[in-house]
Design goal:
The protein has 218 residues and is mainly β. The chain has two domains: 90 residues, Rossmann fold, CATH 3.40.50; 109 residues, UDP N-Acetylglucosamine Acyltransferase, domain 1 (3 Solenoid). The chain contains two helices and 23 strands. The protein is globular and about 50 Å long. It starts with a strand and ends in an 8-residue tail after the last strand. 44% of the residues are buried. Bound molecules: coenzyme A. The site of coenzyme A has 14 residues, from strand 22.
């Protein structure tokens, strides 16, 4: 018999995770429902799965494993802290790895992380907890992706890159080998990062630089 899986947050990422689980990304699990803070979603269904309540109702599902599906890493971090106060430990989180994403021996993927179709890990890659890698992300030798980071579709990391906690790397951005993306930093889609990016900054462009906004006309 399959084990119940409850997805926390019922947005776009939850639907992608649901699709991946249906394709075999969490062997032995079946998605039983979703928990979302939007009370308007209670009692509705998302792609055929019921919204069972809010994250505060997690105690009603003591036998279910969980995956936090908020798209922003900071939101996943907040939800994990909230659920921890309700007694949810690391042992309650499933890891979702699409069957089209082989994880070689010597690579590590932390609990609660989601690797969608076509992600490549070459060798000695460490992926932390509650990390999300969208389709076709490429992680190469000795990369470290810290907890709650989000790598959008097509991101490519050179060897020995460190992606800090809850950092967000936009679609098809790339990072030069041995560079570090700081905690909570945002790297814009299409950027090429060629030096370390400080924590909590937003950089974009080729080569990536701090994002500046055009002056509003007077
Ligand atoms: C970098 C990013 C976070 C900036 O968003 P923002 O703070 O809302 O910025 P704005 O859209 O107001 O743009 C500010 C300026 O930066 C420019 N800009 C925005 N994104 C850029 C990018 N990726 N590369 C280069 N320039 C960019 C804009 O053209 C604008 O320039 P202007 O002031 O000269 O007109 C966003 O554009 C981005 O790249 N997000 C990632 C999207 C993504 O990968 N989504 C995946 C969903 S799964």
């Amino acid at each position: 018999m399959s084990k119940a899986l409850v997805l926390v947050a019922a947005g776009g990422l939850a639907r992608e995770v649901l699709s991946a689980v249906r394709a075999g990304a969490a062997p032995g699990h079946e998605v039983a429902g979703l928990l979302d803070d939007d009370l308007g979603k209670a009692g509705t269904t998302v792609d055929g799965v019921p919204v069972l309540g809010t994250p505060d109702d997690v105690a009603e599902h003591p036998d279910a494993d969980l995956v936090i599906c908020a798209g922003r890493g900071a939101a996943r971090r907040d939800l994990a802290a909230r659920l921890a106060k309700l007694g949810v430990g690391d042992d309650r989180y499933a890891t979702v790895v699409h069957p089209a994403t082989p994880v070689p021996a010597g690579c590590v993927v932390g609990v609660g992380s989601v690797l969608l179709a076509g992600v490549v890990l070459t060798t000695a890659v460490t992926v932390g907890r509650h990390v999300v890698c969208m389709p076709h992300v490429t992680l190469t030798h000795d990369d470290v992706v810290e907890d709650f980071a989000t790598l959008a579709a097509g991101v490519a990391l050179g060897g020995g890159v460190i992606v800090g906690s809850a950092a967000y790397l936009g679609m098809r951005s790339s990072v030069r080998e041995r560079c570090r993306v700081g905690d909570d930093a945002v790297l814009g889609m299409g950027a090429a990062l060629v030096e370390d990016q400080p924590a909590r900054t937003t950089w974009a462009g080729v080569p990536a630089r701090p994002l500046t906004r055009r002056e509003e006309p007077k």
